[in-house]
Amino acid sequence: MQAASHRLSPTGSIVMMCGAAAVRPPAMGFSLLAAEGASIPGFGKALARELSPVRVTVVMAGLVDTPINSARREQSAKWAETSLPARRFGQPEDLADAIIFAMRNPYTTGGILVVDGGLLIA
Fold first, then answer.
1. What is the mean pLDDT of the segment spanning 44-66?
2. Which residues contact 55 (CB under 8 A, 6 or more apart)?
């Protein structure tokens, strides 16, 4: 990253993504996914220090209604309605809003913005 850092604007930002499985694996057999996802927040925090004043933020997503989830959409939607505090799946627009916020806010760096509909507390 240091090799590319001179190409980044000092007022720029990097937004990284990970899933809530990083801190709440959905089921048995997801240990590799959890380990991969959990590495991203640490990497983001380290980059925020190393690349300062470039801002680095991690957006942690919960369950999002995308084509990859279409096979289980009806079953998952019922679960979301009864189990998630937000009572629905996230939409791609929900994540896009968070990413744009992280990119535009000049005082946001080194943190994890959780956009999960309450999955981590469900």
1. 94
2. 12, 13, 14, 48, 102, 106, 108, 109, 110
